[in-house]
Amino acid sequence: MRVVVVGASGNVGTSLLRALANESAVDSIVGLARRIPKAEFPKTEWRRADIAHSPLRTHLDGADAVVHLAWLIQPGRDKHRLREVNVDGSARVFRAAASAGIGTLVYASSVGAYAPGPKNRGVNESWPTTGIQSSFYSRHKAEVERLLDRFEHEHPQTRVVRLRPGLIFKREAASGIRRLFAGPLLPNLLVQRRLIPVIPAHPRLVFQAVHSYDVGDAYRLALVRDDARGAFNIAAEPVLDSD
Known about the structure:
Blueprint: E1 2-6, H1 11-20, E2 28-33, E3 44-48, H2 57-60, E4 65-68, H3 79-99, E5 104-108, H4 136-154, E6 159-165, E7 167-169, H5 174-182, E8 207-211, H6 212-224, E9 230-234, E10 236-240
Parallel strand pairs: 1-2, 1-4, 2-3, 4-5, 5-6, 6-9, 7-8
Antiparallel strand pairs: 8-10
Helix pairs in contact: 1-6, 3-4
């Protein structure tokens, strides 16, 4: 199997490349990124591409599967650029996959695609993916879900899997994760437990998280298991609250 990973240099992308290193079903990988990283992974060839502007079809030719992970959260002030990458760029990836006749498309959705739900119980993948209107991230994730609905309807021969993980963390990506949540101007030295002694005890401060390596393995399974179709929530116990 030849796999193209779009957005391969990020937190989840590098964890997926790590998971695929020993996967016998995968022979070769093309890692697409806006900037080619220094990191090297077995079976992986890096290529530079911006999903908002670069030609994509040539990178997908000959591939059996595409994993679409590319997404922007910062700079939050540039809403045009965010939409250009997140929504329009995703549409370009889906069109290129269709044009290249890709057999499997795996998309990185998110729990952020869901409509507001209860905080005292879990819900399954049938909960509406209409997003939260006050969050551009949520709106974009919901909109791309609709693009993928249309893709599935128009290309029933393609196996489509959408993973909806909770918050994703790993130690190696700590500085990048900090920039996503706090912006580029907050120094790392200020983000220490002793300097943040209090967290508000808000009743809706409840969420789930999952380690990036586990998410990478979930994407590996989505690629190699032919019976994997539709949406999957990816999260870990325990549920996290302010305590």
